[in-house]
Design goal:
CATH superfamily: Alanine racemase
Order of helices and strands: HEHEHEHEHEEHEHEHEH
Helix content: 40-55%
Strand content: 15-25%
Radius of gyration: 18 Å
CATH class: Alpha Beta
Oligomer: single chain
CATH topology: TIM Barrel
Number of helices: 9
Structural class: alpha/beta
Shape: globular
CATH architecture: Alpha-Beta Barrel
Low-confidence stretches: none
Mean pLDDT: 95
Length: about 250
Protein backbone atom coordinates (compact mmCIF):
# COMPACT_ATOMS: atom_id res chain seq x y z
CA UNK A 1 0.00 0.00 0.00
CA UNK A 2 1.13 3.55 -0.65
CA UNK A 3 1.99 6.11 1.98
CA UNK A 4 -0.97 8.34 2.85
CA UNK A 5 0.78 11.54 1.73
CA UNK A 6 1.48 10.01 -1.65
CA UNK A 7 -2.12 8.88 -1.99
CA UNK A 8 -3.32 12.40 -1.16
CA UNK A 9 -1.01 13.86 -3.82
CA UNK A 10 -2.25 11.33 -6.35
CA UNK A 11 -5.81 12.37 -5.56
CA UNK A 12 -4.96 16.03 -6.09
CA UNK A 13 -3.32 15.27 -9.43
CA UNK A 14 -6.28 13.21 -10.57
CA UNK A 15 -8.69 15.97 -9.55
CA UNK A 16 -6.71 18.60 -11.48
CA UNK A 17 -6.45 16.40 -14.57
CA UNK A 18 -10.11 15.42 -14.39
CA UNK A 19 -11.23 19.04 -14.31
CA UNK A 20 -9.25 19.72 -17.49
CA UNK A 21 -10.59 16.62 -19.22
CA UNK A 22 -14.17 17.51 -18.32
CA UNK A 23 -13.62 21.06 -19.53
CA UNK A 24 -12.36 19.81 -22.89
CA UNK A 25 -15.34 17.46 -23.20
CA UNK A 26 -17.73 20.33 -22.54
CA UNK A 27 -15.98 22.58 -25.05
CA UNK A 28 -15.97 19.88 -27.75
CA UNK A 29 -19.63 19.03 -27.15
CA UNK A 30 -20.71 22.65 -27.27
CA UNK A 31 -18.68 23.21 -30.43
CA UNK A 32 -20.65 20.37 -32.04
CA UNK A 33 -23.98 21.61 -30.67
CA UNK A 34 -24.28 18.66 -28.32
CA UNK A 35 -25.25 18.35 -24.69
CA UNK A 36 -22.06 17.53 -22.73
CA UNK A 37 -24.12 15.30 -20.45
CA UNK A 38 -24.51 12.90 -23.40
CA UNK A 39 -20.83 11.97 -23.04
CA UNK A 40 -19.80 9.44 -20.39
CA UNK A 41 -16.21 9.40 -19.19
CA UNK A 42 -14.66 5.95 -18.79
CA UNK A 43 -11.47 6.27 -16.73
CA UNK A 44 -9.03 3.64 -18.00
CA UNK A 45 -7.19 2.08 -15.07
CA UNK A 46 -5.30 -0.79 -16.69
CA UNK A 47 -1.97 -1.30 -14.92
CA UNK A 48 -3.05 1.09 -12.17
CA UNK A 49 -2.96 -0.13 -8.54
CA UNK A 50 -5.97 -0.21 -6.26
CA UNK A 51 -4.86 2.87 -4.31
CA UNK A 52 -5.02 4.96 -7.47
CA UNK A 53 -8.51 3.66 -8.25
CA UNK A 54 -9.67 4.48 -4.73
CA UNK A 55 -8.21 7.96 -5.10
CA UNK A 56 -10.15 8.36 -8.35
CA UNK A 57 -13.36 7.29 -6.61
CA UNK A 58 -12.70 9.89 -3.90
CA UNK A 59 -12.59 12.68 -6.50
CA UNK A 60 -15.84 11.53 -8.10
CA UNK A 61 -14.96 9.12 -10.90
CA UNK A 62 -17.55 6.37 -11.15
CA UNK A 63 -16.88 4.51 -14.43
CA UNK A 64 -13.69 2.52 -14.87
CA UNK A 65 -12.33 0.74 -17.92
CA UNK A 66 -10.06 -2.29 -17.76
CA UNK A 67 -8.34 -4.26 -20.53
CA UNK A 68 -7.40 -7.52 -18.81
CA UNK A 69 -10.08 -9.66 -17.19
CA UNK A 70 -8.06 -11.37 -14.46
CA UNK A 71 -6.19 -8.22 -13.37
CA UNK A 72 -9.48 -6.35 -13.28
CA UNK A 73 -11.16 -9.08 -11.24
CA UNK A 74 -8.50 -8.76 -8.54
CA UNK A 75 -8.99 -4.98 -8.40
CA UNK A 76 -12.76 -5.27 -8.32
CA UNK A 77 -12.53 -7.73 -5.45
CA UNK A 78 -10.48 -5.17 -3.51
CA UNK A 79 -12.37 -2.03 -4.47
CA UNK A 80 -15.87 -3.50 -4.67
CA UNK A 81 -18.47 -2.85 -7.30
CA UNK A 82 -20.59 -0.52 -5.23
CA UNK A 83 -24.04 0.75 -6.06
CA UNK A 84 -22.74 3.60 -8.21
CA UNK A 85 -19.44 2.19 -9.49
CA UNK A 86 -19.34 0.74 -13.02
CA UNK A 87 -16.67 -1.52 -14.49
CA UNK A 88 -16.31 -1.55 -18.27
CA UNK A 89 -14.40 -4.21 -20.20
CA UNK A 90 -12.65 -2.38 -23.03
CA UNK A 91 -9.97 -4.91 -24.03
CA UNK A 92 -9.87 -7.97 -26.24
CA UNK A 93 -11.68 -10.90 -24.63
CA UNK A 94 -10.14 -14.36 -24.77
CA UNK A 95 -12.64 -17.19 -24.91
CA UNK A 96 -11.43 -18.65 -21.62
CA UNK A 97 -11.90 -15.28 -19.89
CA UNK A 98 -15.49 -14.73 -21.00
CA UNK A 99 -16.92 -16.22 -17.82
CA UNK A 100 -14.79 -13.87 -15.68
CA UNK A 101 -15.90 -10.92 -17.78
CA UNK A 102 -19.55 -11.85 -17.37
CA UNK A 103 -19.20 -12.08 -13.58
CA UNK A 104 -17.21 -8.95 -12.89
CA UNK A 105 -18.07 -6.31 -15.47
CA UNK A 106 -21.11 -4.09 -15.85
CA UNK A 107 -20.62 -3.51 -19.57
CA UNK A 108 -18.51 -4.83 -22.45
CA UNK A 109 -17.19 -2.46 -25.13
CA UNK A 110 -15.20 -5.07 -27.03
CA UNK A 111 -17.54 -7.76 -28.34
CA UNK A 112 -15.46 -8.54 -31.42
CA UNK A 113 -16.64 -11.91 -32.72
CA UNK A 114 -19.62 -14.25 -32.70
CA UNK A 115 -17.97 -16.84 -30.46
CA UNK A 116 -17.63 -14.31 -27.63
CA UNK A 117 -21.27 -13.28 -28.07
CA UNK A 118 -22.31 -16.89 -27.52
CA UNK A 119 -20.08 -17.24 -24.46
CA UNK A 120 -21.22 -13.99 -22.86
CA UNK A 121 -24.85 -14.88 -23.44
CA UNK A 122 -24.36 -18.33 -21.92
CA UNK A 123 -22.51 -17.12 -18.83
CA UNK A 124 -24.83 -14.17 -18.29
CA UNK A 125 -27.77 -16.57 -18.39
CA UNK A 126 -26.11 -18.72 -15.73
CA UNK A 127 -25.91 -15.62 -13.53
CA UNK A 128 -29.47 -14.57 -14.30
CA UNK A 129 -28.43 -11.23 -15.75
CA UNK A 130 -28.40 -9.31 -19.02
CA UNK A 131 -25.00 -7.97 -20.07
CA UNK A 132 -24.95 -4.64 -21.97
CA UNK A 133 -22.48 -4.83 -24.86
CA UNK A 134 -21.02 -2.75 -27.65
CA UNK A 135 -19.99 -4.43 -30.88
CA UNK A 136 -16.38 -3.69 -31.84
CA UNK A 137 -15.85 -2.95 -35.52
CA UNK A 138 -12.69 -2.32 -37.51
CA UNK A 139 -13.57 0.68 -39.67
CA UNK A 140 -10.06 1.41 -40.91
CA UNK A 141 -9.30 -2.10 -42.17
CA UNK A 142 -6.01 -2.10 -40.28
CA UNK A 143 -4.85 -5.70 -39.91
CA UNK A 144 -3.78 -5.30 -36.28
CA UNK A 145 -7.22 -4.19 -35.09
CA UNK A 146 -9.82 -6.47 -33.54
CA UNK A 147 -13.50 -6.43 -34.42
CA UNK A 148 -15.74 -7.10 -37.38
CA UNK A 149 -14.23 -5.73 -40.59
CA UNK A 150 -16.41 -2.76 -41.50
CA UNK A 151 -13.91 -1.02 -43.76
CA UNK A 152 -15.81 -1.85 -46.97
CA UNK A 153 -19.25 -0.29 -46.88
CA UNK A 154 -20.54 -2.84 -49.38
CA UNK A 155 -20.12 -5.47 -46.64
CA UNK A 156 -22.43 -3.69 -44.22
CA UNK A 157 -25.60 -5.62 -45.19
CA UNK A 158 -23.82 -8.89 -44.25
CA UNK A 159 -22.66 -7.32 -41.00
CA UNK A 160 -26.23 -6.30 -40.28
CA UNK A 161 -27.31 -9.94 -40.65
CA UNK A 162 -24.70 -11.05 -38.14
CA UNK A 163 -25.49 -8.28 -35.71
CA UNK A 164 -29.17 -9.16 -35.90
CA UNK A 165 -28.24 -12.65 -34.70
CA UNK A 166 -26.38 -11.16 -31.75
CA UNK A 167 -29.34 -8.95 -30.88
CA UNK A 168 -31.48 -12.09 -30.71
CA UNK A 169 -29.58 -13.43 -27.73
CA UNK A 170 -31.62 -13.12 -24.55
CA UNK A 171 -28.85 -12.37 -22.04
CA UNK A 172 -26.80 -9.76 -23.85
CA UNK A 173 -28.13 -6.38 -24.89
CA UNK A 174 -26.50 -4.61 -27.84
CA UNK A 175 -26.37 -0.87 -27.22
CA UNK A 176 -24.04 0.40 -29.92
CA UNK A 177 -20.57 0.30 -31.43
CA UNK A 178 -16.93 0.69 -30.49
CA UNK A 179 -13.87 1.22 -32.66
CA UNK A 180 -10.18 2.02 -32.42
CA UNK A 181 -8.59 4.17 -35.15
CA UNK A 182 -5.00 3.65 -36.32
CA UNK A 183 -2.18 5.29 -34.36
CA UNK A 184 -2.10 8.67 -36.06
CA UNK A 185 0.26 11.56 -35.30
CA UNK A 186 -2.52 14.13 -35.60
CA UNK A 187 -5.80 13.67 -33.67
CA UNK A 188 -7.67 15.24 -36.58
CA UNK A 189 -6.79 12.19 -38.68
CA UNK A 190 -9.20 10.16 -36.51
CA UNK A 191 -12.12 12.26 -37.71
CA UNK A 192 -12.80 10.38 -41.01
CA UNK A 193 -12.75 7.08 -39.10
CA UNK A 194 -15.32 8.33 -36.60
CA UNK A 195 -17.50 9.77 -39.35
CA UNK A 196 -17.48 6.44 -41.11
CA UNK A 197 -18.49 4.76 -37.86
CA UNK A 198 -21.40 7.19 -37.59
CA UNK A 199 -22.50 6.22 -41.09
CA UNK A 200 -22.43 2.58 -40.02
CA UNK A 201 -24.41 3.48 -36.90
CA UNK A 202 -27.10 5.19 -39.01
CA UNK A 203 -27.15 2.23 -41.40
CA UNK A 204 -27.70 -0.21 -38.53
CA UNK A 205 -30.41 1.95 -37.01
CA UNK A 206 -32.35 1.47 -40.24
CA UNK A 207 -31.52 -2.19 -40.85
CA UNK A 208 -31.35 -3.75 -37.38
CA UNK A 209 -34.19 -2.37 -35.31
CA UNK A 210 -33.57 -4.87 -32.50
CA UNK A 211 -31.12 -2.33 -31.03
CA UNK A 212 -31.25 1.45 -30.91
CA UNK A 213 -27.46 1.65 -31.59
CA UNK A 214 -27.27 4.87 -29.59
CA UNK A 215 -23.90 4.32 -27.92
CA UNK A 216 -20.57 5.08 -29.60
CA UNK A 217 -17.45 4.26 -27.59
CA UNK A 218 -14.71 6.23 -29.36
CA UNK A 219 -11.90 8.51 -28.33
CA UNK A 220 -8.91 8.16 -26.02
CA UNK A 221 -6.54 10.64 -24.40
CA UNK A 222 -5.05 11.13 -27.87
CA UNK A 223 -8.18 12.37 -29.64
CA UNK A 224 -11.23 12.52 -27.37
CA UNK A 225 -12.23 16.13 -28.24
CA UNK A 226 -12.44 15.06 -31.90
CA UNK A 227 -14.41 11.97 -30.88
CA UNK A 228 -16.89 14.07 -28.91
CA UNK A 229 -17.36 16.36 -31.89
CA UNK A 230 -18.05 13.26 -34.00
CA UNK A 231 -20.71 11.72 -31.79
CA UNK A 232 -18.96 9.84 -28.98
CA UNK A 233 -21.24 8.91 -26.10
CA UNK A 234 -18.36 7.24 -24.23
CA UNK A 235 -14.71 8.28 -24.21
CA UNK A 236 -12.01 6.02 -22.76
CA UNK A 237 -9.37 8.14 -21.06
CA UNK A 238 -6.39 6.95 -19.06
CA UNK A 239 -3.22 8.98 -19.62
CA UNK A 240 -4.86 12.41 -19.41
CA UNK A 241 -6.26 11.50 -15.99
CA UNK A 242 -3.65 9.24 -14.44
CA UNK A 243 -0.46 10.10 -16.29
CA UNK A 244 1.54 8.16 -18.85
CA UNK A 245 2.96 5.57 -16.46
CA UNK A 246 1.43 3.47 -13.70
CA UNK A 247 1.84 5.04 -10.29
CA UNK A 248 3.62 2.60 -7.96
Amino acid sequence: MMHEDKINQIGKNIRTNLELVNQRIVEAAEKAGRDPDEVKLIAVTKMMPVDVINAAIEVGIRRFGENYAEQAAEKIDFVGKGVDIEWHMIGHIQSRKAETVSRYFDMVHSLDRMKIARFLDRYAKEQNRVMPVLIEVNVSGEASKYGWDASDESSWPKLADQFRQICAYQNIEVRGLMTMPPMFNDPQDSRPIYRKLQRLQHFLKKKVSESDWDELSIGTSFDYPVAVEEGATMVRIGTDIFGSRPVV
